[in-house]
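Lecture notes, unit on protein representations.

Consider one protein chain, 241 amino acids long.
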Amino acid sequence: MVQPKLSGTAIARARSVTASPAPNKTGKAPRMTKKALLQSELERRRNYAQAFFNEMNETVFGSGIPAGTTLEWNKRLLTTAGRAHWRKTREGVHVTSIQLAEKILDCDERIRNTLSHEMCHLACWIIDGAPTENHGSLFKNWAKKVMRKRSDIEVTTKHNYDIKYKYEWKCATCSKIYGRHSKSIKPEEVVCAVCKEGQLVPQFETRRTAPKTPKPKADSQNAAARSRGTSNTCSPSIHSC
């Protein structure tokens, strides 16, 4: 049987139907915004902290700390890196939580050290049954167990972390540094709290705003309107328009 011959137009149509879609020219993933990147990093830290808590509770504390201990990330906690909370209900149930400073714990090392510190507190209160223990011998014993298990962890009695502030001001007189997470300090309204006289100089780029043009007063506007109105009016005593 003789196959019918296809015209050039028919062949072109067949090729256009079977052709695969053109690949992406750029081949790059869409760029994430700065806010999206920050949220992604915060989520990664939360997951890391939870996984670390579960691991240490099992390998060091013998699952003696309640598995339901909540890890609360607090962006307003600025005076300390972490804080452990514990209470015992009338039914004998241990209710525990650990607050973590979102703006201080900005790396995995700080998360490990701070979380280990707070877990040592909970171990003293729950496992050892010593609710008044602070940083005494019981706490130090748990700290040694943690550091023997993990050489990348250091448990101390204090969280001596330098907070990374987004905005800083420096006193022009005594060089005292003030840090904030927002532009809450108004240098034109305050002076240095240490030397009581120095001007606070922003250590970040500030916008230069153009001076505002003063608005004319109402009397001046009315006078200008009257002037414009009379200049286009002919005086009947001289000639007619």
